[in-house]
Structures are given as structure tokens and as C-alpha cells.
Amino acid sequence: MNATLDAGVLPAMQELHVSNDILDDRAALQAAWDRDGYWFFRDVLDTEAVGRLRRVFLDELSQLGVIAPDDPVARFNGKSLEDFPFRMESLASRKVWKPFVAEPSIHRFFSRLLADDPFWIPTVEYRATPPAQDRARARFDYVHQDGFYNAGIPFSICWIPLAEIDPDVGGLVLAEGMHKGPYLHDLAQPPLFPIPDGAVPAHAWRRTTYRPGDVVMMHLNTPHTGVANYSDRFRLSMDIRVMAASGDTPIIGNITSLTSREVAVQGDQGRSGAFVFDENTYCRGIDGRKVPLDEIPSHFRAGDEVILAVRDGRVTVLRPPH
Ligand SMILES: O=C(O)CCC(=O)C(=O)O
Ligand SMILES: [Fe+2]
């Protein structure tokens, strides 16, 4: 049996490499990225800025009545989770990532790391994961490579713990050096194409105990998963996607008109226009599946926020932020 998929105890695994010492060494950073498929930095984000974001999560959880007001460790009080908003829709609709990345200290860190302004892709997950209710399930939630589900936009994943995440709380595990391809997802198993058990050798998995101020940056093809939360607290993290601003950035905007042949968008930073679809267009619907061209008008409408990648006036990717 694959030890990493057993229920219960998290198997022993090696710690993530810490890259703090190469933060200002472009060549060493690139070499670590190419070798490992991630960077992990310890205690580099302004903990006051991270604390302000944690406060937003804690306020939301206490409003929902699942933690005591002002409980800094977010201990679950046992209330029914039947109506719990697992994707924290209220934080998503308020776009609470924006003031966070606009904090001067946070902006400065990512500008230094990328040697460029950061360009944030508004594909954000606000995770407030309650203690696992079913402890007979595997400890790994769902091993995946983000790139498999996000063809065409070369971002890095930025995973930010908002409170301490120890082995009981779970957190993120990733497979070091396994971003070099090919995809591990099984094309013979639609519609989710799961990565088969054992495709990632047990010795490749890495983790650490995460603390506020830490950040993991991952290659979009690095296999990873959340680990089920066996503590009594909520697991608090945010993940968002980022690129260097001078890179081949997608247009983030709102649809102004749409047919099965083209889409017009009002983009940010003056990047508006009409762009045609062709046989290479990958249109991803809200359920994550590829949408045939003639069905595109029934999946989106004017006003919707979208992420759009364009090459030579043709759309390569059209998708909602989530
Ligand atoms: O935090 C998790 O549970 C999973 C994170 C993840 O899949 C991501 O950051 O892309
Ligand atoms: Fe992911």
C-alpha cells in the first residue's frame, strides 16, 4: 500500500529546502527552481500584514459562529458545518487579496523576489479548513498539478500560511523535483484525470511546519496537495497566482460582448479589445471542464470577470478567475 495515502498519521517526510540565503542571487534562485520546482522562504513576509489578513479570516469565522470571537488560534467550537462556506465566498467577493498584496511591505518582498513588479492573477483560494470530520479517509486531500487544469498561463503558485500549521493541522505537501513533466494526471480517467496512487514516489514528498511570515512559491506543474486537518483548529491559508509583470501576462477584465466567434473585454491597465476564438482556444467553464466553442455564449455573459490569454489577436485561454 502507498504509505502516503494511508489514513491517520502523516508519514515522516523530509523538510522543504529553505531558500532565504539565495533570495538576492538570481542564478542560485533559478537553479533551485529548476531543480526543485519550488522556493520556500521562512519568515520573510511582514507578519503584521499577514496578521491583518488573518484577522479578516478570523472575523469571518466568528461571524459564522464556528470559533469564539477573538480566538487567535481559530479553535473549532463544534457547531454544525452543514452551511459552512468551504470556499469562503464572502472573502472572495470582497477580494481581500487586493489590500494584502498592496501592503507596501508585501509588494516590496515580491518585487525583490521576482526582480520585477508582481502581476497577480486573481485565481485565489481562501482556505479555512475545519478539522476533518471523516478520519477514515486518506490524509492527502487531492494530489494535483495546477498546470494540468490551467493550460496556457505560466504563473507560479504562491501559498501563504496565516497561522501556524503543524503536522496535525496538515498544510501543504509537495513533490520536490517532479515539475519537469510529463503530467502525472491519468488521461484515461475523465473528467478529473486523477494522479494514480504511487505516481509520486514516497521519497519525493516534502513539508514543514509553516508559520505566519513564511511563503511557498511553486512551479505550476509541481504535484502537491493539502493534508487533512487532524487538529482542533481551522487551517488558515491563502493561495494566489503570480507572474513577473514584464512576462507574457494574461488580460484580466470584464466581458463587454460575446459570441461563439469572439469576445470583447474591458481589460485592466488599458488592455481592452475584441479577440477571436479558434480551434486552439481553451475555454474553461466554472466547473473546470473544457467548453466547446459554440457553447461559450451560454457559459459567460457581459459583465463577467475573466482571465484571457491572447496570442496574435487569438484567444488561447478564456476562463473565470475560479
Ligand atoms: O492548501 C491546500 O489545501 C492546497 C493548495 C493548492 O492546491 C494550491 O495552492 O494550489
Ligand atoms: Fe493546487
Question: Summarize this, please?
Answer:
It contains six helices and 15 strands.
Describe the structure.
InterPro entries: Phytyl_CoA_dOase-like. This is Phytanoyl-CoA dioxygenase. It comes from Paraburkholderia rhynchosiae. By secondary structure, this protein is of the alpha+beta class. It folds into two domains: 3-244, Jelly Rolls, CATH 2.60.120; 251-319, OB fold (Dihydrolipoamide Acetyltransferase, E2P). Helix content is 17%, strand content 26%. It contains six helices and 15 strands. The strands form three sheets. It has a six-stranded mixed β-sheet, with no helix packed on it. A five-stranded antiparallel β-sheet has the order 2-7-4-9-3. It has a four-stranded mixed β-sheet with strand order 1-6-5-8, with no helix packed on it. β10 (251-258) and β11 (262-267) form a beta hairpin. The two termini are 34 Å apart. 2-oxoglutaric acid is lined by residues 127, 141, 146, 157, 159, 172, 224, 226, 237, 239.
SSE diagram, text form:
Elements: E1 14-15, H1 26-36, E2 38-41, H2 47-63, H3 89-94, H4 97-102, H5 104-114, E3 118-129, E4 156-161, E5 171-175, E6 205-207, E7 215-219, E8 224-227, E9 235-244, E10 251-258, E11 262-267, E12 273-276, E13 282-283, H6 296-299, E14 305-311, E15 314-319
Parallel strand pairs: 1-6, 13-15
Antiparallel strand pairs: 2-7, 3-9, 4-7, 4-9, 5-6, 5-8, 10-11, 10-14, 11-12, 14-15
The structure holds 2-oxoglutaric acid (AKG) and fe (ii) ion.
2-oxoglutaric acid binds next to strand 4, strand 8 and strand 9.
